[in-house]
């Protein structure tokens, strides 16, 4: 047969800015978001939510609601007691952690405003919602626990039986772990003859605010129960829902159809999910629940919400010797799926790209009368990065050094990789010098510094600041062995199947579950190269437990580095299985064959067979060699041995109007090293969106509760998701040091922008305002807070600076300067 | 109340409750699920459609107010199998990720160009202020609108 020329190198798919396969249905409105789905006889749920943050439920009267037009049933917590068990916490940090029982519908008490106390089932969504207002609940108020420091210190308690609000106290110490020296010794040394910085930073509470409100639909009418959910984690949902509702796992099929964003916010199993399943089973009818935005803001989990008390010790030459991190983390009233572990996802990252001699991290997870916190983009690592990057800037100020020079003095140099950090993790690759050099050039660092000096000198009312963030992050969740050592309930492996169809096209089935990331496109590019098939001939299937039976879903920048490694291993097996068949078809020895460009070739000849031909031969299985399975399809599971460590240098030019407090971004340069890039178009999109969420923390967003524990920012009127005019065009570029421990050399990009940008913005604001004596501004840096900081600050003088000695540690107020 | 509305070129006559929102009528009355609901407060713009050629947030229009009107949704924007230039531009510039805000964003962007065929980047950003996107950071959306402006001219 005639064989076409082998594809030249330049036609490789990986690295090309392929337009997305996913787009067609999304730009024409042919979407399958859960709320778009309709089933015959479908019922709708309305949730009755507590308006009170902490109370005993003394009575619930559902009579009027039950009599309301269109209402089919009303259930309270006790009505559903036999139908659904408590919510799972998959990651307590130790077996001794205090994990409160969390029932999807409250039974005797409520512990946050927004907690569900009754469920209305009706024949229309409107009827259900109308009737929720007719359920009469009597409460007996209890003392509300909101302030983190006060909650840590003593009564009143959220769950009084424990006589504490501290769920756990978790410590990593480099001296105890044998990964470094003793923090106390190093700080003591620095107090005698060095510099000690002591700071308290507040990571305000944020809301993931995915655009698609959560929606669930359960059809219990078939032999199997089918559960559509706007989830990031269909595989987790199947297991936990099966346990909670005593549904045999093999009788439960979970489908994540089109999912409108998640950002960690849909990395949960939600009370509303369990309720929808339990009610559908109880009534034997299809049941749908779609939350309103205000329900989403008050009832879906939040993120961040930590107080960071930090002590950094350094020599007078600017070499950091020790970092002590002491956290209070607000869990809310109950534990989310992985909520208790969010702080420790940052625990190994506070040392960031630097070489510190000693490191200690400790966290107390605190219970309060707020909705639970859990994963939100970056999860633990943005908090860590913010803390260390703020400290490095402050240290540079103390030493009167350029903040980039100070960082360079402390960072791991390119020659030192692989490098084991003081937190005990090995960074496989990186080049901080290269990323920083590129960022400085794109930014015109020297030019902007000169302009800054000039504007300072002429007392320009609009001052310029330069914000720096040289971040790294720990991606690719995760080695199961490490997760096990941290008491996580699940593993971190991933699974894939590659199916060669008889006509030569390919189905790739993955256990990851994308919701906007463009995996269908990027994975098609990777498989096209691997198997030598056309990009268009690859179909990526996911998000349905009947199709993709095994998997651990999408979060933590894991899908590419962990998930695709499984895909590539399955593809390797396809090639291995095809080989003896090709040898049979070509009447050649297997040793004489080589696989190139989608064909097995007889070495040194132009005789070969394509995978498509071999797949068709497998369909026929005529004249089949003995002992060979007539099937090329293959599966593989992959458990990473290590994390990956993307890094980068982000520089922000920030203009601050000193008369009004208004902050604007003039220029933002992001140079990221995420290893091998599969699709630069998609990578840029991930970075843009990530940057925006980090900038939103710095400037706009905060979930605010009033003194009664009511969420004040309960709609998009008050919770300030930025819109287009709030932002600028970002300059993005990359350097590339491939990851060493996965076949692609990829590191992950989903969280990078969010992790890096928050400190870049705040450092920029402070850099603009340091001549006014401003040392700290609490996030979000609203015009009011910036203006107040300028009004309240004392101009910096020689006397007010504190080089060479410790500042007094945490003020008695325990708050910020 | 009885209303008669032309949606994406087809005229429908239906009884609706007076409180029915236009978006509820489109989604649950007509099955026009391409138009989605992202908030309760007219902030997010996911539900944007054209009402007699003007962009409106269909969560803030009653179905009865659309009586006798022409409504165009994302599902009616393409014609004769050809994508609208704004749809094409969103695809070519990677101006969407999860795609939930996209129908509203495209409808608003198309309306923006009708009012101002050659907007500056700042005018594009301000013209899209009422539409929230959580995925893209807006950069590629602005780029897409700029490209569509070029192709419309």
Describe the model.
The complex is a heterodimer of chains A (817) and B (153). By secondary structure, chain A is of the alpha+beta class. Chain A has three domains: 34-142 and 211-261 and 266-299, Aldehyde Oxidoreductase, domain 3, CATH 3.90.1170; 378-475 and 644-792, Aldehyde oxidase/xanthine dehydrogenase, molybdopterin binding domain (Aldehyde Oxidoreductase, domain 4), CATH 3.30.365.10; 493-638, Aldehyde Oxidoreductase, domain 4 (2-Layer Sandwich). Chain A has 21 helices and 28 strands. A seven-stranded mixed β-sheet of chain A has the order 3-5-1-12-9-10-11, sandwiched between helices. In chain A, α19 crosses α20 (752-769). Chain A is globular. The model of chain A is unreliable at 1-8 and 800-817 (pLDDT under 50). Chain B has 153 residues and is an alpha+beta fold. Chain B folds into two domains: 2-76, Beta-grasp domain (Ubiquitin-like (UB roll)), CATH 3.10.20.30; 85-152, [2Fe-2S]-binding domain (DNA polymerase, domain 1, Orthogonal Bundle), CATH 1.10.150. Chain B has five helices and five strands. In chain B, strands 2-1-5-3-4 form a five-stranded mixed β-sheet, with helices on one face. The radius of gyration of chain B is 15 Å and the shape is globular. The model of chain B has no long low-confidence stretch (mean pLDDT 97). At the A-B interface, α1 and α19 of A face α2, α3, α4 and α5 of B.
Give structural attributes:
heterodimer; A: 817 residues; Aldehyde Oxidoreductase, domain 3; Aldehyde Oxidoreductase, domain 4; 21 helices; 28% helix; disordered N terminus; disordered C terminus; B: 153 residues; alpha+beta; Ubiquitin-like (UB roll); DNA polymerase, domain 1; 2 domains; 5 strands; 15% strand
């Amino acid at each position: 047969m005639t064989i076409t020329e082998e594809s030249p190198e330049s036609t490789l798919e990986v690295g090309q800015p392929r337009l997305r396969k996913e787009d067609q249905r999304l730009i024409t409105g042919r979407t399958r978001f859960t709320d778009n789905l309709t089933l015959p006889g479908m019922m709708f749920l309305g949730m009755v939510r507590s308006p009170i943050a902490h109370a005993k439920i003394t009575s619930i009267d559902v009579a009027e609601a039950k009599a309301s037009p269109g209402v089919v049933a009303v259930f309270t917590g006790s009505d559903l007691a036999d139908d659904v068990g408590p919510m799972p916490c998959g990651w307590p940090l130790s077996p001794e952690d205090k994990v409160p029982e969390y029932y999807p519908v409250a039974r005797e008490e409520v512990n946050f405003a927004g907690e569900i106390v009754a469920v209305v089932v009706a024949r229309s969504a409107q009827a259900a919602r109308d009737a929720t207002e007719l359920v009469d609940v009597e409460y007996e108020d209890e003392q509300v626990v909101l302030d983190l420091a006060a909650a840590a210190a003593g009564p009143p308690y959220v769950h009084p039986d424990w006589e504490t609000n501290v769920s756990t106290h978790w410590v990593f110490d480099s001296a105890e772990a044998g990964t470094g020296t003793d923090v106390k010794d190093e700080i003591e040394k620095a107090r005698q003859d060095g510099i000690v910085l002591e700071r308290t930073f507040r990571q305000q509470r944020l809301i993931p605010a995915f655009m698609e409100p959560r929606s669930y639909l359960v059809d219990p009418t078939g032999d199997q129960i089918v559960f559509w959910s706007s989830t990031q984690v269909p595989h987790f949902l199947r297991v936990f829902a099966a346990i909670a509702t005593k549904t045999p796992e093999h009788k439960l099929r979970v489908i994540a159809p089109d999912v409108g964003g998640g950002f960690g916010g849909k990395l949960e199993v939600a009370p509303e999910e369990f309720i929808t399943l339990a009610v559908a089973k109880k009534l034997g009818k299809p049941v749908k629940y779609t939350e309103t935005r205000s329900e989403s803001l008050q009832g879906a989990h939040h993120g961040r919400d930590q107080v960071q008390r930090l002590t950094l010790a350094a020599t007078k030459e600017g070499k950091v010797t020790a970092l002590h991190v002491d956290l209070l983390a607000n869990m809310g009233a109950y534990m989310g799926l992985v909520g208790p572990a969010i702080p420790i996802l940052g625990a190994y990252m506070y040392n960031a790209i630097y070489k510190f001699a000693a490191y200690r991290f400790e966290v107390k997870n605190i219970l309060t009368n707020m909705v639970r916190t859990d994963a939100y983009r970056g999860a633990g690592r943005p908090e860590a990065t913010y803390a260390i990057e703020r400290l490095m800037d402050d240290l540079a100020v103390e030493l009167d050094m350029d903040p980039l020079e100070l960082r360079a003095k402390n960072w791991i140099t390119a020659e030192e990789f692989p490098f084991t950090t003081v937190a005990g993790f090995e960074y496989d690759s990186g080049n901080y010098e290269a990323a920083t050099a590129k960022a400085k050039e794109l930014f015109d660092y020297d030019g902007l510094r000169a302009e800054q000096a000039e504007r300072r000198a002429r007392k320009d009312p609009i001052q310029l600041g330069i914000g720096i963030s040289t971040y790294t992050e720990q991606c690719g969740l995760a080695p199961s062995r490490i997760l096990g050592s941290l008491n996580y309930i699940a593993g971190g492996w991933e699974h894939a199947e590659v199916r060669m169809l008889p006509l030569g096209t390919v189905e790739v089935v993955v256990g990851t579950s994308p919701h906007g990331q463009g995996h269908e496109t990027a994975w098609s590019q990777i498989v096209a190269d691997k198997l030598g098939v056309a990009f268009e001939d690859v179909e990526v299937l996911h998000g349905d437990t009947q199709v993709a039976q095994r998997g651990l879903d999408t979060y933590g920048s894991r899908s590419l580095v962990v998930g695709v490694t499984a895909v590539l291993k399955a593809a390797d097996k396809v090639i291995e299985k095809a080989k003896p068949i090709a040898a049979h078809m070509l009447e050649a020895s297997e040793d004489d064959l080589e696989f190139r460009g989608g064909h097995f070739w007889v070495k040194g000849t132009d005789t070969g067979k394509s995978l498509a031909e071999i797949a068709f031969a497998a369909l026929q299985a005529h004249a089949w060699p003995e002992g060979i399975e007539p099937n090329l399809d293959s599966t593989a599971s992959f458990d990473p041995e290590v994390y990956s460590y993307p890094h980068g240098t982000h520089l922000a030019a920030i203009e601050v109007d000193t008369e009004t407090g208004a902050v604007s971004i003039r220029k933002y340069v992001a140079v990221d090293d995420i290893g091998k890039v599969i699709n630069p178009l998609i990578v840029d999109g991930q970075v843009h969106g990530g940057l925006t969420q980090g900038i939103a923390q710095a400037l706009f967003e905060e979930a605010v509760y009033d003194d009664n524990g009511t969420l004040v920012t309960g709609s998009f009127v008050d919770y300030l998701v930025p819109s287009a005019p709030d932002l600028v065009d970002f300059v993005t570029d990359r350097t590339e040091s491939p990851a060493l421990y996965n076949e692609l050399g990829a590191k992950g990009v989903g969280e990078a922008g969010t992790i890096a940008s928050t400190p870049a913005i705040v450092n920029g604001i402070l850099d603009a305002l340091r001549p006014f004596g401003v040392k700290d501004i609490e996030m979000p840096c609203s015009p009011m807070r910036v203006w107040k900081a300028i009004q309240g600050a004392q101009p910096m003088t020689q006397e007010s600076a504190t080089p060479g000695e410790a500042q007094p540690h945490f003020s008695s107020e325990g708050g910020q300067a | 109340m009885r209303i008669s509305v032309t949606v994406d070129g087809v005229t429908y006559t239906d009884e609706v409750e007076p409180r029915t929102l236009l978006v509820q009528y489109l989604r649950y009355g007509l099955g026009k699920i391409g138009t989605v609901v992202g908030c309760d407060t007219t902030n997010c713009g996911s539900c944007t459609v054209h009402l007699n050629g003007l962009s409106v947030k269909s969560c803030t229009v009653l179905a009865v107010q659309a009586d006798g009107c022409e409504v165009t949704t994302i599902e009616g924007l393409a014609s004769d199998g050809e994508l609208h230039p704004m749809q094409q531009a969103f695809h070519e510039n990677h101006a969407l990720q999860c795609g939930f805000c996209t129908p509203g964003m495209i409808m608003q962007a198309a309306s923006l160009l009708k009012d101002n065929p050659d907007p500056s980047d700042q005018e594009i950003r301000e013209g899209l202020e009422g539409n929230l996107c959580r995925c893209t950071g807006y950069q590629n959306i602005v780029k897409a609108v700029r490209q569509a402006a070029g192709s419309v001219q």
